Structure formats: structure tokens, C-alpha cells
Amino acid sequence: MYSPLSHRTGAGAYARLGIETTVMSASPHQLITMLFEGAATAIGLARHYMAVGDIPAKSKAISKAIGIVEDGLKASLDAEAAGPEGAALVANLTELYDCVVQRLLYANLRNDPQWLDQAEELLENVASAWRSIGQTANA
């Protein structure tokens, strides 16, 4: 017989397997797109938890968004691979990601959704450009 705990664990394992399979088969472009989506989802969760007053869950969601930006998006920037022409772009993106992290920290400290809105808007500007590059490459 299945207990509720084993059902949740089994469903969670199945979901993780699906995510791992998607990640392993994704192109580098798709991986970055997934990072943008993950950050947006974490910011949306933070906004929800902020609205309902769940401070620990809000902080966890913001920490997840910060981790995605710092350890995913920002860490994937490579000034050497960009070459001299792309070095300025890498520098600009690095500053933008630092700005996003700063806004997420302010949102967490001040419990203010306007900072989440700003962080989300900054990320969406880059994410939409990134998605359009993928559409152009696939056309």
C-alpha cells in the first residue's frame, strides 16, 4: 500500500527525473532560457509569499532567484570567449546582474514588492532578447 509520503516522494522523483532529462538534452541556449524562467518563477513565488506574509518562504524564494542570477546567469558570462568585441557586452551584463541581485536583496530586507518588480523587469528585458536570438537561430 502507498502512504501519502511515499506518493509525494515518488512524484517528486519523477518530476526531478523529467527536469534532469530536459536539462541534459538542452542546448546551451536553452539552458540559459531555463535559467531566466527559473529566476522569473522564483521572483513570482517571492511576490506571492510576500503578499501572504510568509517571510521564511519569501526569503527562500528570493535566495533561489539570487542563486540563479549569480551562479547561473552571471557565472555563464565569459569575457574571453566574447573576445574584444563582446567584452563590453559581458561587462554590461555583469553590471545588470549585480543590479538585479541588489534589488532582490532590497526586496527581501524591506519586504517591498516594487523591488521585485524592478528585478523582474530587468531580467525580462534580457530574457526577451535572449529568446528572440533563439528564434532567429532556429528560423
How would you characterize this protein structure?
By secondary structure, the chain is mostly helical. The protein has a single domain, classed as Four Helix Bundle (Hemerythrin (Met), subunit A). The protein has helices spanning 4-25, 28-52, 55-74, 79-110, 113-138. α2 runs antiparallel to α5 (113-138). The chain is globular and about 45 Å long. This is Flagellar secretion chaperone FliS. Keywords: Bacterial flagellum biogenesis, Cell projection, Chaperone, Cilium, Cytoplasm, Flagellum. It is found in: Cytoplasm, Cytosol.
Write the layout of secondary structure elements.
Blueprint: H1 4-25, H2 28-52, H3 55-74, H4 79-110, H5 113-138
Helix pairs in contact: 2-3, 2-5, 3-4, 4-5
Entry summary:
With 139 residues, the protein is an all-alpha fold.
